[in-house]
Amino acid sequence: ACGSKEEAAPTLYDRLGKTEGIARIVDGLVANVGAETAVPNSVMLRSHKPMLDAVNGVNGQAPTDPTRLQRLRNNFVDQLGEATGGPLTYKGLSMLAAHRGMAVTPNEFSVWRQQLEGSLNSNNVSASDKAELYVIIDNMHDDVVGH
Ligand code: HEM
Fold first, then answer.
1. CA distance 8 to 48
2. What is the pLDDT of residues 119-130, one digit of tens each?
3. ipTM attached to this prediction
4. How far is the CA of 47 from the CAs of 35, 73, 88, 92, in angstroms?
5. Largest Cα–Cα separation, the chain
6. Which residues bind heme (predicted)?
């Protein structure tokens, strides 16, 4: 019936393809960030090096924290799944705590956001859904940058 829960307008979470769609977007972002950290003069290598070293190991040493990237990825899926109106629950650190000590610069944020844009485009997210997601993302800018 009109107004029943079944007929409620789809949330951004629904339109992004629910958990599966959000996971694809996050996996694309992770892949794009990983690729960017491998180019000469990478902008994001500086901030990501501690995590990459922990996951990959340094100088042939065993990784010290092999699942660290996987945990970040899963937390990011939960964070977006919650922030877009879905049933997921973010259990990670606050954005301020997660990025404290990294001194992320505005340019690093901008390049990170371009990697997200690439993933949203490869996943055929519409312009209006992208705009809605960027409101959520850009609201976190001041907690991520400059600490
Ligand atoms: C609004 C934009 C961003 C969001 C929503 C976001 C989200 C997250 C989340 C959910 C975590 C994991 C927290 C946890 O596991 O408790 C995290 C950690 C991290 N983020 Fe971001 N992030 C953003 C921007 C950036 C930028 C711009 C950079 C650097 C260029 C960055 C680099 C990192 C790194 C290196 C970690 C820590 C990984 C580790 O040491 O385990 N993030 N971020």
1. 40
2. 999 999 999 999
3. 0.97
4. 14, 16, 27, 18
5. 64
6. 99
Please name each of the domains of the chain with its CATH number: 12-144 (1.10.490.10)
Q: What's the 57 CA to ligand 1 centre distance in angstroms?
A: 20
Whole-model pTM? 0.95
Atom 7 in ligand 1: residue holding the nearest Cα: 76
Distance of CA 88 from the midpoint of ligand 1 (Å): 18
Asked whether 69 lines ligand 1 (CB < 6 A), one says no
